[in-house]
Structure formats: structure tokens, C-alpha cells
Design brief:
GO terms for molecular function: cysteine-type peptidase activity. This protein is of the alpha+beta class and 363 residues long. It folds into 2 domains: 37-191, Helix Hairpins, CATH 1.10.287.1490; 212-222 and 241-361, endopeptidase fold (from Nostoc punctiforme), CATH 3.90.1720.10. It is 67% helix and 10% strand. It is built from 10 helices and 6 strands; from the N terminus they run H-H-H-H-H-H-H-H-H-E-E-E-E-E-H-E. The chain has helices spanning 2-104, 109-117, 119-124, 126-129, 134-189, 194-227, 244-254, 272-281, 291-297, 349-352, and strands spanning 298-301, 311-314, 321-327, 330-336, 340-345, 355-361. A hairpin with a 6-residue loop joins strand 2 (311-314) and strand 3 (321-327). Helix 6 runs antiparallel to helix 7 and helix 7 (244-254) crosses helix 8 (272-281). The longest helix has 103 residues, at 2-104.
Length: 363
Amino acid sequence: MVLAQRRTRGGVGLAVLLVSLLAISVASPGQAAPQADINAVQAEVRELRGQAESANERYSEVRADLADVQTEIDSVKAKIARNKAARRAQSEAVNSLARSLYMMGSIDPTLQVLLAEDPSAFLAQASAMEQLSMSQQATLRRWQTTGLALAQSEAVLADREKAAKALSATAAERKAEVNDKVRQAENVLSKLSAEQRAIIAAQRAEQRRQQAAQAAAAARKIESQAGGGGGGGGGGGGSPGQGRAAAAVRYMLSQVGDPYSYSANPPRSWDCSKLTAAAWGQSGVGLTALSYRQWDQTRRVPVSQIRPGDLVFYFGKGAHHVAMYVGNGKMVSASNPDDGVEIIDFLGPWYRERFSGVGRVIG
């Protein structure tokens, strides 16, 4: 009986201990959960923001292609208008020639019907051509040449308008993809509590403060090296020193903390390629404000030879995000609406997985 009571008391004591441990194990994660949730949410949102930014660059690419095609369409339409005006002017001369031959009474009767229906076709007949002077034949040839050019231009117009229609459809798809990624990111953020949002806001404020300090320190270093005739941006990823690269890097650093926008309106807001194009524009170098075109406009160099002012590209085989290397393993990037223009590791964990290569600006 005593043994049984001891076992019972022992079992009760063990049960109480397990319940206590369970309560502790539940309470501890409960206390740490907000931070864990925040980290998970921030990681998911960053991925979605990155996908949205990449999709936005692809959308911008299609819009640029569409603008090019529209320029072609406008040019072809202008050419067609000129050809039609020339045809109207030439038609009077052609009709006059046909009537003159008819009035001379030397036309084969079988051609008279053709004359009534189409004077130009009538004049093309060999028997009619024999009765024309050299200058009159030249008039007819010009008429025929203009007609051929008009037909060719109308065929080109139809092709370009078909291409524009396809690009417009693709642009709509790309824009829908951007909006979908943005909506997904907002849905993820909506799961956070007010307290968690406050934590994120505080983290971002501190991050912006630290990055502003980093950017200011880097800019002062460039100025000091420029004043002392420092290096000109040799290999090893150090400082840009003097020259065009230094001007570009200084401009990038001066924008740290600026907002990012999918519909960027510089200098009030930026996207990735508009920022790098504006920075190199400070040195008189014209880069197209599209990441994939900047990829084509720069020369590939290995990471081991990277130097400040070089552009760094991301998203694997594509080039749908671009930033500028500013030295000491850092880049300035117009990243997304949450982070804005930031100074970060150019091969940090998230970016390393998506790294495409380094591009050196030539010219």
C-alpha cells in the first residue's frame, strides 16, 4: 500500500513536472515567436519584392521594345503618306498621257476598254509604250516605282502593327506579374500584428541610419583620396579615387536612403537601372536605363578584378537587376519599396544565389 502510494505520488509529481516543462516550452516559443515570425515574413516578402523588381525590369524592357516598334510604325506611316502624295501628283500626269494617246486615235481598239478602266495599266502595254517619248516613259516608270514602294511600305506597316499588338499583350502580362507579386507581398505583410510592424519599422529606421553613415564615410574617403591625388580605381575592389568612376560612385552614395518605385520618377524615386544610368551620366557616359541593355553595354570582368564603378547584375542567366559596386565588398542598389536605395554586400546570401556577373563601363 505504501509502495503504491509512493508510486502514485511519484506519478503525480512526474505529471506535474511534465506539465510545467510543457508550459515552459510553450511559453518560451510564444515569447520568441514574434521575432521568428518577423524574420520569416521579411524573408518571404524580400523574395516577392525581388521577383516584382525583376518582373518590373522585364516589363520595362517590353515597353522599350514597344516604343522602338512604335517609332518604326510612325516612320513607315510618314513614308506611306509621302508615297500617297506622290501617287496623287503623278496620277494626273499618267492620266493625261493616256488621254493624249487616246485622242491621237492610234490605239488598238482592244486596249480602249483597258484605258477606260485603268490608264496606268493601259500605258504599261507594249503597244502603248511604243507611242510614248522617253520623258513620258520616265513619268510612267516613276508612277510604277512609287506604287511598288507604297505596297512594300503598307506590308511593313502591317507587320510592325502586328508586332506592336503582340508586345502590348506581353507588356500587359508582365505588368500583371508585377502587380501580382506586389499583392502577394502585401498579403504576407498583412499577417503581422501592429507590434510586429512597429518592430520592423524600428529595424528599418536603424538600418537607414547605419547605411547613411556608411555612405557618408565612403563619400568622405573618396573626397580625401581625390584631394590627395589618390588611385584611379585599380583592381582589388578598393576605392575609385579620381576620374569618371569616382563621380559615378559619389552620385550613387548620395542617393542612399532615397525611395524605390516601380514607376520610378528620378530624382524623386528610382528603380535599379535608372539609378545606375543616372550615376554614370554624371561622368558623361550614356547608359540605357534598362538592366539588360546595360549588360550589353558593359564588358564582362571576373569578380576577382572588380573595382568601384563596375556594375553588378543579378538573376542568373538574365540581367533583371543591376547595382553599382562601390568598394570594400559593398554595392549601392535601388532594391525595392521596403529597402529603397541601400548600401549592402554585393555578394550577400540573397544576392549571391542570384548573381549574374560584373560589367565594366567602357568609353
